[in-house]
From TrEMBL:
UniProt cross-references to NCBIfam families, sorted A to Z: NeuD_NnaD
Domain PglD N-terminal, residue spans: 4-79
Family under the similarity heading: Belongs to the transferase hexapeptide repeat family.
Protein name listed in UniProt: NeuD/PglB/VioB family sugar acetyltransferase
Coiled coil regions in record: none
Top-level taxonomy: Bacteria, Pseudomonadati, Pseudomonadota, Alphaproteobacteria, Caulobacterales
Organism: Phenylobacterium terrae
Length: 214
């Protein structure tokens, strides 16, 4: 029997989730657009313009959700809501991705096109491994974190919860990134980062603008 899924959100990241689900052979029961947004040309009859509560009532409660929004605060809220409702979170891997048999993926993880998760890596619940990123051997990615396209988490590095690693950024081997940190696009992190740190550049240095790297 085909695997079924509902995707929460109908913006850009939801499109990636939708395409990944279709490519992986899943049946998308609904793309849930609480604000009535979403592109019918992309989502077609799957588009459901109701909120999460309405979707919970409308669709089989055995169908897991995948959170198709990139905002980390919203992702955390929706993951908590799913838990409250007794909904499972789907773990979805694009068929072009490479995931080692010894890697561990938590519930709700998206592994995007051409992403790589190497031996003994660990990725916690509700994280995004976006297109073409690499999580090397023995590295760890925390819950609700987003590794943007082309970013590289090298061997033994550890990324905390609620972290945004910008596109093309590199976390060097064994380096830790604290919870809630932001690493701007293209940065190279060579030293441990405290919780909430915001860094950019090569080598990475502290910045003050939250908008950098998005």
């Amino acid at each position: 029997m085909a695997k079924r899924i509902c995707i929460l959100g109908a913006g850009g990241h939801a499109k990636v989730c939708f395409d990944t689900a279709v490519a992986a052979g899943w049946t998308v029961e609904a793309v849930i657009a609480p604000a009535g947004d979403g592109d019918p040309a992309v989502f077609g009859p799957c588009l459901f313009t109701g909120d999460e509560a309405a979707a919970h009532q409308r669709f089989d409660r055995d169908i897991p959700w995948l959170i198709g929004l990139g905002d980390l605060a919203i992702r955390r809220r929706l993951a908590a809501l799913a838990g409250t409702l007794g909904r499972g979170l789907a773990t979805l891997t694009h068929p072009s991705a490479v995931v080692s048999a010894s890697a561990r993926l938590g519930d709700g993880v998206l592994v995007g096109p051409r992403a790589v998760v190497n031996a003994s890596a660990e990725v916690a619940a509700n994280a995004i491994l976006n297109s073409g990123c690499i999580v090397e051997h023995d590295a760890k990615v925390g819950a609700n974190s987003h590794i943007a396209p082309g970013a590289v988490i090298l061997g033994g590095a550890e990324v905390g919860d609620d972290v945004l690693i910008g596109g093309g950024a590199v976390i060097l081997p064994g380096v830790s990134v604290g919870h809630g940190a932001l690493v701007a696009a293209g940065a190279v992190v060579a030293r441990p980062l405290d919780a909430g740190a915001r860094v950019a550049g090569v080598p990475a240095a502290r910045i003050t603008s939250r908008g950098a790297g998005r």
